[in-house]
Every structure is written in structure tokens, then in C-alpha cells.
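User: Please fill in residues for this 340-position structure.
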């Protein structure tokens, strides 16, 4: 599969998402890249972003209440999968958190989770929160998406570069990022509901600038809030369409092949948009998966030396559960528009 869509465009540095877009388009025509197009990461999304009339006035639909989407049949299947894999003791010891969301019908998602509100150390997986903050700043017109920044954002996600994660975090600002994560718009961290997605430290030797107020974690997450983030992305309610597309592009084509990616390797027709994390005994993975007209979100966080293997096996079982769900009955531009 072609990783970088072949749309016309030039150096990403010309796109600063400011109105009017015409000078940007002119520059793109005048300054063609002189080396292979794969260097121009996310060029298709940036070409679209250059036509943005006004990020400040764009409207984003409100997401549905995912907590109200609990599905008893899928919940039972997920509980059975964990039990079959021998992971029930780890679940009882709060060393495992899992969430699965069928988003094939975006108007009627189906949720199953186990320890979904358990706040756990999630290693590099919260870098997806840094990406949310960076794109929120860009959508607001305060973060120029030049070539340097896009390359850093791609390396932060696809290759889990610690240096680039710290770089992007510093560009956004640590406290500013936490404002976004806790904002009424995203609500990805809620101290009154167990926590959520938290980034209170760069990914280097520097000390934490602010640990989460409930669990004192520097890089934490709950499976539910990460699943909710992907559900909003899938539904188009995380950002405006152009920034949604850019985030999907950055999450595509993961550069590290383990956990959920390994679980789905060799499965025909699978597309995966993903961010994982590993540190010592902590293993985490999160993904939006597309296959045969279905779309689903998988999230798991484990604390165990064998946690990476747990996530491979969990990923395989969650894939089976999601693919056995209701079939989509109609398609629009290759996307399912209703559940059957």
C-alpha cells in the first residue's frame, strides 16, 4: 500500500494554515520538491490544510457519549477472551486494562471494556496526546505546520522517537498541552472520573513538570479515554475534517512491528492507525483498525514482563470479536454508513 498519497504539492514549509490560502498554493506550485516524495510526510493532508479558509471559525460536531454505548454481547465476548487467555488474575490485580469499540456505525458505537477506567503508566502511548495538542494548536492557527514540525510529529508517532516527542511537547508547551487534554472540548483527562490521558513530563531525563493529580503518574492513560480519543477520530468529531485526515495519516504505517501490529500481520485487507508504548514491564498499545467495511478501536495496557505477548494475543482475540459483529449494510466513499 502506498504510504504517502500522491497529491500535488511542494515543500511543507510553505503551509502555515493562515488565511488567505492562495499564496500558499502559489508557492506549492513554484517550489516542487527536488528529491523523493517520501520525504514530504503527510503531503496530501497538508495540501488539503493549505486550502483551509479559517481554522478559528471551523466547527467540530460534538461526540456521542461513549459510556452509554456499552454492548452486553461484546462485553461478554471480551470477558471470555481474557478468561481463555488466562489473564483474569492480572485483571483482578489491576495489572491489565482493555477496551474495544466497534465504530463501524459511527452513529451507534458499541463499547466493551475491562478495568477501562484504571489509570496506568502507559510509557510512550500518551505521545498520542502530544499529537492531539499539537494539532489543536495548529487548528487554532498558533502552530505552523512546517516541514520540521511535521517530520518530528511523524517520527514521534510512527517510530516513537523520544527526542521528537520532547521537541513537539516543548513547541506546544507542557501546561498548554494539559489544558487541551482537560478542556471541555476534548475531556481526555478527568480527575473526577478516574483520570485519562496525561503527559506531565518530556521523554528525556528532565523531571516531570506536573504529575497527574490522582495517581502521580508522569505518562498515564486509561483504556477508556484512549479508546474514546480514537472513537472521536473515527467519527470525525476530534478535529475538523482536514486535521482529522492529517492525524489519521500520521498514525498510519507504524514503524514498530510488535503487539497489535504483530497480532494483525498477514491478515488480508487490514489497515491500522496506531500508537504503542513500552518501558520495562509496562506495555501499551492502541489502534483504529479498518477491514472489509468494519472499523474498530482496540486499546490495552499491561504491567508484566510478558505484557508484550499478552497484547499480541489480546489483539488477535479483539480482532475476532470485532469482525464477528454486525455487518455494514451501506458504503459511502468506501466508508460504512450504517450497521446491519
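Assistant: Residues filled in for all 340 positions:
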Amino acid at each position: 500500500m502506498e504510504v504517502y498519497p500522491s497529491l500535488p504539492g511542494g515543500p511543507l514549509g510553505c503551509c502555515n494554515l493562515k488565511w488567505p490560502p492562495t499564496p500558499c498554493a502559489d508557492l506549492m506550485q513554484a517550489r516542487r520538491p527536488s528529491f523523493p516524495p517520501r520525504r514530504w510526510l503527510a503531503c496530501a493532508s497538508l495540501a488539503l490544510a493549505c486550502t483551509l479558509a479559517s481554522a478559528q471559525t471551523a466547527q467540530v460536531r460534538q461526540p456521542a457519549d461513549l459510556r452509554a454505548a456499552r454492548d452486553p454481547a461484546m462485553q461478554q465476548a471480551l470477558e471470555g477472551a481474557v478468561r481463555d487467555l488466562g489473564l483474569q488474575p492480572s485483571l483482578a490485580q489491576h495489572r491489565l486494562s482493555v477496551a474495544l469499540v466497534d465504530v463501524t456505525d459511527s452513529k451507534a458505537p458499541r463499547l466493551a471494556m475491562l478495568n477501562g477506567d484504571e489509570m496506568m503508566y502507559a510509557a510512550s502511548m500518551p505521545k498520542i496526546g502530544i499529537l492531539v495538542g499539537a494539532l489543536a494548536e495548529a487548528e487554532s492557527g498558533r502552530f505552523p505546520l512546517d516541514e520540521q514540525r511535521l517530520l518530528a510529529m511523524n517520527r514521534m508517532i510512527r517510530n516513537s522517537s523520544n527526542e521528537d516527542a520532547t521537541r513537539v511537547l516543548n513547541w506546544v508547551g507542557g501546561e498548554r498541552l494539559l489544558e487541551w487534554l482537560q478542556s471541555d472540548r476534548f475531556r481526555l483527562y478527568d480527575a473526577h472520573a478516574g483520570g485519562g490521558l496525561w503527559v506531565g513530563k518530556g521523554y528525556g531525563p528532565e523531571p516531570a513538570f506536573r504529575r497527574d493529580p490522582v495517581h502521580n503518574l508522569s505518562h498515564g492513560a486509561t483504556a477508556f479515554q484512549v479508546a474514546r480519543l480514537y472513537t472521536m477520530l473515527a467519527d470525525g468529531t476530534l478535529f475538523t475534517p482536514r486535521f482529522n485526515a492529517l492525524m489519521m495519516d500520521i498514525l498510519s504505517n507504524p514503524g514498530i512491528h510488535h503487539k497489535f501490529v504483530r497480532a494483525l500481520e498477514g491478515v488480508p485487507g487490514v489497515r491500522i492507525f496506531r500508537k504503542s508504548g513500552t518501558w520495562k514491564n509496562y506495555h501499551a498499545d492502541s489502534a483504529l483498525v479498518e477491514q472489509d467495511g468494519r472499523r474498530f478501536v482496540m486499546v490495552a495496557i499491561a504491567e508484566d514482563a510478558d505484557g508484550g505477548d499478552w497484547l499480541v494475543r489480546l489483539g488477535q482475540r479483539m480482532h475476532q470479536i470485532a469482525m464477528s459483529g454486525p455487518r455494514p449494510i451501506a458504503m459511502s466513499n468506501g466508508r460504512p454508513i450504517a450497521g446491519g
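For context: The first strand starts at residue 96 and ends at 102.
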